Amino acid sequence: MNLQFFPSRRLALYSVKLYLTRTLAVLIGLVLVLLALDLLGESGKILGVPGNSDADLWRYAGLRLPLLIARFLPFSVLLGTLIMFVSLNQNSEVVAMKSAGVSAHQMLAPLVVASLGLSVAAFIFNETVTVQSARVVNAWSDNDYKPIPPESGILTNVWVARGEDLVRARHVGGTGRGFHAEGLTIYDRERGALARIVEAERAYPRDGDWQLQDVTVYDSGMNVVRRVPEMSALTGVTADQLRLSRVDPDETSFFDLKQKIEEMQAAGKPTAAAEAGLWHKLSGPLSIVLMPLLAAVAAFGLARSGQVLLRATIGMALGFAYFVADNFSLAMGNVGAYPPLLAAWAPFFLFLLVGETVLIRSEE
Predict the structure, then answer these.
(1) Where are the transmembrane segments (predicted)?
(2) Burial of 15 (0-12, 13-18, 19+ CB in 10 A)
(3) How far apart are CA 225 and CA 217, in angstroms?
(4) 22: which of 38, 80, 189, 253 fits an S-S bond (Cβ 3.0–4.6 Å)?
């Protein structure tokens, strides 16, 4: 019996080469198709803004490309591994390896090591490229593809509750005394009814309240609209309340998100969604390691039995089930129904056990 971790150097390199090339081919084809469909849906909005040109379409494509790669890399690994295993099975290469004493786990060992490398690369790519692209493209789309200010710490579509009142800012940005809000709207409610709507082009925090500029005030009781150059409002609302009211894990790197969670906890804000997103930044890329295990069912069984397609379908179904369970668990963690750690890691360990059980009972 062969008890080595890898079957052999030659066989390990051969299987890893097949694994990486099939995965890359699926990823390129999938991302190009999805990017083309995305551009068809958004090109009218982008070119509809005065001053935008074809260069802005290329800019949008460049910003969306990392997001599509990050989202569909695990799915591409699943499909690429299925294609590889079906090809090996139909060419009787799996039978030859098993005849030489190579176990199912030894066949998967090189793929698992390669998947760990892909997971590390995916994590670094997400932290350095994807979060920046997500931050810019979301701010751009929230601003209806109009030019966005080149400033740091920008957040878009920010909402804050202040007693009965609601406050919305089209975007906030800047740091320290340069912190400001643009497109600020205050929905002033009294006893559950809308009393006034105050809209300001820009607003700055000043000594416990906010200085609003270019203000339009609509009074629902008198049904009149008046305009004033400046006014003070939002007494007691701090800059941190706006800055921490919208923390998107997809737009924040791991260590920045961890720091924001600590700031939210100090401010008494709920952190369930942010904590679930923090842990998912680790479990998401690591899901790549699961894909060869879930797709391995397609590698075994005799090709002449006519069940290769059925086994490939089972492997694909297991992969899809993982993605559904992962999204469901993360959504439950965002609303606080699951603890953040459980929401991020439960699907991974559940399907790790499912994949191992299927593999052991069918092949080992």
Answers:
(1) 20-41, 61-86, 107-125, 286-303, 308-325, 337-360
(2) buried
(3) 6
(4) 80
**Residue 354: CB partners within 8 Å, gap ≥ 6?**
294, 318
Name the residue type at position 238. Answer: T
Is 86:78 a contact under the CB 8 Å cutoff? no
Structure tokens, 194? 């809308």
Calpha distance 269→275 (Å, rounded): 12
Cα dihedral sign, 295-301-304-307: negative
Q: How far is the C-alpha of 18 from the C-alpha of 254, rounded, in Å?
A: 32
10-residue mean pLDDT series, the chain (364 residues): 67 91 95 94 90 91 94 94 86 79 83 94 94 86 76 69 80 74 85 84 83 87 85 79 75 88 77 89 94 82 62 85 93 87 93 87 64
DSSP string, 18-52: HHHHHHHHHHHHHHHHHHHHHHHHHHHHHHTSTT-
Give yes or no for a contact between 129 and 217, defined as CB atoms under 8 angstroms apart.
no
Supply the DSSP symbol for 146. Answer: -
The residue length of the chain stands at 364
HSE-CB at 114 with a 13 A cutoff on CA atoms is: 22
Q: What burial class does residue 282 get, using C-beta atoms within 10 Å of its C-beta: 0-12 exposed, 13-18 middle, 19+ buried?
A: middle
What percent helix, strand, coil does the chain show, rounded to 5?
A: 60, 15, 20
DSSP one-letter code for 180: E
Query: What is the β-pairing status of strands 180-190 and 165-173?
Result: antiparallel
What is the separation of C-alpha 276 from the centre of its chain, rounded to a whole number of angstroms?
12
Residue matched to tokens 């290769």? 308
Burial of 110 (0-12, 13-18, 19+ CB in 10 A): buried
Residue 274 · residue 330 · CB < 8 Å: no
Q: Which helix (H) or strand (E) holds 198?
A: strand 193-206
- Closest of 86, 6, 102 to residue 301, by C-alpha: 86
